[in-house]
């Protein structure tokens, strides 16, 4: 029995299914979670299917999470999508169900759940959900296709990132055959609010470069207050530094309320997730996150980022 069949067998076994995703969700987290929920509702109308987690205003156009009582978890199957490790699961009640499944595409360093299905060569978790549906001949309704397409577009940077494969494009083509406006989703994910546009100008004006092709920007609490933005609003600016010719890898450091820093680390080719692990984070080889307690750690971090850039001799 394949892992896709094992997951379907688990789904068929339970009357109540609750789907979680990671904290601080992105389009793929929403798309894979809510897209899977829509598929299950369409194919198993007799089952109760819920999608839970923090409500994020900027992603409400993809789908809305639901609020459910603790007792709903009794005898329920819990599925967690797009979440590499358990501390990042949004809503810790995910452990309150009777059974747990993990579906993800990040490095599997925390193999929780049974089954635990991880495809690190997939462009996104949304792509994996389409594979799951296809493998089991499940109907993908138009609304699920819309959400899953948004997830794929979000995690591939509109097919610019290295994780994009011919299979990714085939999956996207399959989804576009459904009744939704793909171009509108592309435009929406490429659009930014005016405060973020002004922050983007600040980033380009103030970003710093190291000797060997690394770059970074430190966004202090004062800077964020100046633009009336919170950490979650910085996601659209993360790719900007990578557009600069000669930059191999880069980091956006955003100060939090307690003085700590959240790091968004990206790369065109040099592997950066091992560096992220040194600072309490992790993720994909070319896209990771990490944390710092205070700004005293920043100089050492920048030296390490520069050393990674120096060690890479290929084209950026």
TrEMBL record:
Domain DHHA1 positions: 226-310
Domain DDH, chain residue ranges per copy: 17-152
Superkingdom, natural source: Bacteria
Signal peptide stretch: none
Pfam assignment, any one: DHHA1
SUPFAM superfamilies given in the database record: DHH phosphoesterases
Example of a GO MF term: nucleic acid binding
Protein name as annotated: Phosphoesterase, DHH family protein
